[in-house]
User: What shape does this take?
Amino acid sequence: MSEIIWTDVGRDTARLLSRYIQIDTTNPPGNERKSADFLEGFLSSRSVQSTIYTPAPGRANLLAKLEGDGSERPIMLLHHMDVVPANTERWAEEPFSGTLAYGHVMGRGAIDDKGLGVMQLMAFGLLKDSGVTLKRDVLMLAVSDEELGGKCGAQWMVKNHWPDIQCEFVWDEGGTGTLGIMGDRPVFAVSVAEKRGMIVQLMAKGAGGHGSFSANSPLNRMVSALNRLKSSQWPVQFGEVTKSFLRNVSETQSFPSSWLVRNASMPLFRSFMVKKLASIPVINAMLRDTVTVTSVQSGAGMNVAPDSASARLDVRLLPTTEKSEFLRKLKSVLGDDSILIESAEPPPKIGSSAMDSEFYETLARVIYRRVPQSIVTPIQTPAGTDSRFFRQKGAQAYGLLPAVLTQADLDTMHGVDERISIANLELGTRIIYETLLELCA
Ligand SMILES: [Zn+2]
Assistant: This one.
């Protein structure tokens, strides 16, 4: 087994990412077939066979396997090939150029999720090259359609091809390492659970009329109801994952803040600490259900009070919130029985993945070795990921981009000038490779 020169690996990973970004997989429409062919090309150059599944014309999912001796159940590396749209005019570089500059790879997907994809791909290739005997299969799955719900991607694979997967552990997106956001030590937040997204539609109907004397029009009623919604506070729940998260990040604080963060759920400090913690949006989203108004529609002529108004809410439920209980509360917050509430079905309630599994403990050990002084903690992701489909099948799924990102880096995700550093690509590939080696060899 020849020694791995990690700086070379970092550079190769960056070049691979640059080419991967150049394949435009904006979803819709996705067109991930081209990117699946690209990944297949890389894998076959390393003598790894892969299978491409076709859920719909132009769409694709790719599965590759390094065979183990079967004494343990498989582990699967998972990423999605599709990306969200990019508004070219606001970018410094063309979003699909994959420009390599200033030690970074730029372009849509650099963080979400092609960056993770190339780290996994390189680690997978290195594991193959190492020739070590594996005690479990190592799978790599690249899926389409994550950004729009996974109907052609992860959901489709689990529904139609679960026998090809049947893994014990999944390594997905959902968390990342950060620096400068919580204290001055790197914090690696590993997602073990996620909120459940649900779209709610509100509709007000009634008499419109002349713009000069229609104060009670449906639109005015909707505005008042949304105002009450905006100023409402949703109940706080300290679940096990949140408590563990607070215990871990308390180490980034000095006394007495560290003690208060660790004991935030104690009745005596609860209301003070909730206010303090909830001022950080990501932590607020771990503590309670959240509601964001994403659309309001109404309007007729300039001097006409319209006879209908609708609004759409992006609701994210905690893993334990009942839909019916949430809707009851929503109705009382809106405070207007004439407003109709309709909602889609949220994903089913699923427990979180274990915080003391062999996977989690191995990953944490490798991170502590590679990034001394860091803190590894479980979190509950505010957004949805493909992990839910695998958790529903009983797999333990963990979300982590093993990189150290600043707030400025994070702001580029789904935003403008998305980028990742070559140093992070090297670090992430190494963390994945060493974790796989310890878990599988
Ligand atoms: Zn993503």
In short: The two ends are 14 Å apart (CA to CA).
